[in-house]
Design goal:
This protein has one domain (2-154). Helix content is 6%, strand content 49%. The chain has helices spanning 2-6, 62-66, and strands spanning 22-24, 31-36, 42-47, 53-58, 71-79, 85-91, 95-101, 104-106, 109-113, 122-128, 135-143, 146-154. A hairpin with a 5-residue loop joins strand 3 (42-47) and strand 4. The two termini are 29 Å apart.
């Protein structure tokens, strides 16, 4: 399926860098793919039960890379072709221990370590239980043997 996704790229500049494509998400009827490009952008593709494949690419500007918050949305919140919802976010430092959306547990799946050209850190994928409307994502992280909680607003 990865090769099928790559055939839908709108430009050769959207091609993955040497680290390739990471498949992520819960599986099932939708497929989710994440990669970085050689020109310092991140791309995300989603597939569904139909032959449609949606590819989105973007990335932080140089100023954003220098001043990124510890917790930052990368893609989403959005819906997928199979009828689910998701969020991909960046964690600047540390490892996710647990996460909640408005106090309810959600599972954050590590996608991959991000390269320095896109600001470093880790990318995580969360399947959302519903479409979020002005809700708070709280993420408990471990950094250098200590724990702290980071929060981020999740909205349309």
């Amino acid at each position: 399926m990865t090769q099928e996704v790559l055939r839908h790229l709108s430009s050769p500049h959207d091609a993955p860098d040497g680290r390739g494509v990471a498949r992520t998400g819960p599986g099932g009827r939708a497929g989710y793919y994440f990669w970085e490009t050689a020109d310092a952008r991140m791309c995300f593709a989603e597939t569904g039960p139909f032959p449609d494949i949606a590819v989105t690419c973007g990335g932080p500007s140089a100023a954003e890379r220098d001043h990124m918050p510890e917790l930052r949305p990368l893609f989403g919140p959005a819906s997928d072709p199979a009828g689910g919802w998701y969020l991909i976010f960046r964690l600047g430092h540390g490892t996710v221990i647990s996460s909640t959306l408005e106090g309810n547990p959600v599972t954050a799946q590590r996608v991959r370590k991000l390269g320095p050209q896109v600001g470093g850190g880790q990318a995580y994928f969360i399947p959302l239980p519903h479409w979020p409307h002005d809700e708070r994502l709280s993420v408990k992280v471990a950094v250098n043997g200590k724990q702290k909680t980071l929060t981020m607003n999740v909205d349309l």
